[in-house]
């Protein structure tokens, strides 16, 4: 069934979002090339020099038969609407046609053509969920977010893959190019390959990453873990090329003959640096275990490049820290081991490199969280002292940041229980108050530090 939605934003630009779940009749051949994303594929095409966008929902074989009748070289809206209207008569497939010049939206369903201000084709439940997450004034960003909510919803089984989008600009449509990490409903499997490609880091969620690009010349998908590239030409649901075991640099070269280019920066870097750059994107997108899985196999290769060694251990430390904190919130026993690993990776950078603010602040957070989860009182005190020292180093490196002052105050607060006498306790309280006041001077809206200051002052009284 799939889902495609179109509306105009507040600037009268036509915005289109589409999933990539591809439906076909089992008894017919399309798409024989692949079973990726539970029969996923392209559903949104740009034609007539980017002036017109055409999308379909329903039976992909019927859609392709209709597309083959459209006169692309002498394109006309009227001929296109006539062909698609005839195709939709069987009630298996609906279409959207959008004209960037006239700023017109056409919906074709059951041999009827309408011109609404907004429209959808495909899954009704998906449409209802999508519209619950947008406003009348919503633009493309909000539509993409809403479509991703639909795609991620396991109850809406006919919508899948990932979101492809397009918007009008200066009388033309343009695809919004993507280089991202996502969860798909389904896995990739090439029909002429006997075994499934090993590409999914998290089999439970079917998580993997992709990049896509497109314009009037065609469209291309690339799946990183699978090293799989697919190239499409306008109004062809089946790709003209399926490239397996190909690196994205090589795939980018292949695209030149189609006048396409991936929306990623291609540079002359080592494979280790490529992995680190890729891992940073994984980390920023919150996929911490995948980031660890990417870096860990490098092993001794990290030692050959000082910058790679630093970045790898920093990323591993940050990822283990985030996973440890998440495990702590769930009261998981695994949290101690994860946080301990985080500290160990940060320590490698403390010993071998000059002090770095980001390393110190993240190591302080790891120490602080480790202090919370450990049951041994001596180890607990050591961890909170470690957090204080790291935050002090961070303050010395950048005295105008709120984070290390607040975190040092929080760590000293945890150490109050270990004070041996009132003088030691008062000194600790004064240190906490001083840090809280510094936070307030930098950020008067930082309520947590204000509350902490009042609390420890009441303890002293």
Write the layout of secondary structure elements.
Layout: E1 3-8, E2 14-18, H1 36-39, E3 44-47, E4 52-58, H2 60-67, H3 77-88, E5 93-99, E6 104-109, E7 112-114, E8 118-122, H4 124-132, H5 140-152, E9 164-169, E10 172-175, E11 178-183, E12 207-215, E13 218-223, E14 228-232, E15 241-243, H6 248-254, H7 271-284, H8 288-295, H9 306-329, H10 334-352, H11 357-373, H12 377-397, H13 402-415, H14 422-442, H15 447-460
Antiparallel strand pairs: 1-2, 1-8, 2-9, 3-4, 4-5, 5-6, 6-7, 9-10, 11-12, 12-13, 13-14, 14-15
Helix pairs in contact: 2-3, 4-5, 7-8, 7-9, 8-9, 9-10, 9-11, 10-11, 11-12, 11-13, 12-13, 13-14, 14-15
Structural overview:
The chain has a 5-stranded antiparallel beta sheet, covered by helices on one side. By secondary structure, it is of the alpha+beta class. The protein has helices at 36-39, 60-67, 77-88, 124-132, 140-152, 248-254, 271-284, 288-295, 306-329, 334-352, 357-373, 377-397, 402-415, 422-442, 447-460; strands at residues 3-8, 14-18, 44-47, 52-58, 93-99, 104-109, 112-114, 118-122, 164-169, 172-175, 178-183, 207-215, 218-223, 228-232, 241-243. 42% of the residues are buried. Residues 30-39, 181-207 and 265-269 have low confidence and may be disordered. It is built from 15 helices and 15 strands. α13 (402-415) runs antiparallel to α14. The longest helix has 24 residues, at 306-329.
């Amino acid at each position: 069934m799939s889902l495609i939605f179109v509306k105009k934003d507040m600037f009268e630009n036509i915005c289109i979002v589409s999933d990539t779940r591809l439906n076909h009749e089992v008894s017919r051949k399309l798409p024989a090339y692949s079973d990726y994303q539970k029969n996923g594929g392209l559903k949104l095409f740009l034609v007539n020099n980017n002036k017109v966008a055409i999308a379909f929902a329903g039976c992909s074989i019927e859609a392709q038969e209709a597309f083959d009748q459209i006169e692309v070289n002498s394109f006309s809206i009227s001929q296109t609407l006539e062909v698609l209207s005839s195709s939709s008569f069987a009630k298996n497939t609906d279409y959207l046609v959008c004209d960037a010049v006239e700023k017109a939206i056409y919906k074709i369903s059951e041999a009827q053509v309408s011109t609404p201000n907004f429209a959808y084709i495909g899954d009704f439940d998906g449409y209802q969920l999508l519209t619950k997450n947008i406003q009348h004034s919503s633009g493309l960003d909000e539509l993409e977010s809403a479509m991703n909510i639909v795609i991620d919803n396991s109850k809406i089984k006919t919508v899948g893959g990932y979101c492809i989008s397009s918007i009008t600009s200066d009388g033309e449509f343009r695809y919004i190019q993507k280089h991202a990490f996502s969860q798909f409903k389904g896995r990739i499997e090439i029909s002429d390959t006997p075994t499934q490609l090993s590409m999914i880091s998290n089999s439970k969620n079917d998580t993997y990453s992709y990049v896509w690009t497109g314009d009037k010349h065609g469209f291309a998908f690339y799946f990183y873990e699978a090293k799989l590239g697919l190239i499409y030409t306008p109004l062809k649901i089946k790709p003209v090329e399926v490239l397996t075991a190909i690196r994205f640099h090589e795939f980018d070269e292949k695209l030149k003959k189609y006048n396409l280019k991936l929306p990623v920066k291609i540079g002359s870097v080592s494979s280790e640096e490529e992995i680190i750059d890729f891992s940073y994107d994984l980390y920023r997108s919150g996929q911490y275990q995948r980031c660890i899985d990417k870096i860990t196999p490098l092993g001794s290769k990290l030692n050959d490049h000082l910058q790679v060694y630093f970045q790898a251990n920093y990323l591993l430390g940050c990822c283990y820290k985030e996973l440890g904190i998440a495990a702590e919130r769930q009261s998981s026993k695994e949290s101690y081991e994860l946080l301990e690993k985080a500290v160990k990776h940060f320590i490698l950078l403390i010993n071998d490199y000059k002090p770095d603010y980001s390393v110190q602040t993240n190591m302080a957070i790891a120490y602080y969280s480790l202090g919370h989860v450990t049951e041994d009182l001596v180890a607990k005190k050591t961890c909170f002292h470690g957090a204080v020292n790291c935050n002090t180093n961070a303050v010395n490196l950048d005295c105008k940041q709120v984070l290390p002052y607040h975190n040092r105050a929080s760590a000293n607060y945890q150490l109050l229980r270990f004070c041996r006498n009132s003088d030691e306790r008062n000194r600790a309280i004064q240190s906490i108050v001083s840090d809280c006041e510094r936070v307030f001077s930098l950020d008067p809206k930082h309520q947590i530090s204000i509350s902490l200051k009042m609390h420890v002052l009441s303890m002293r009284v």
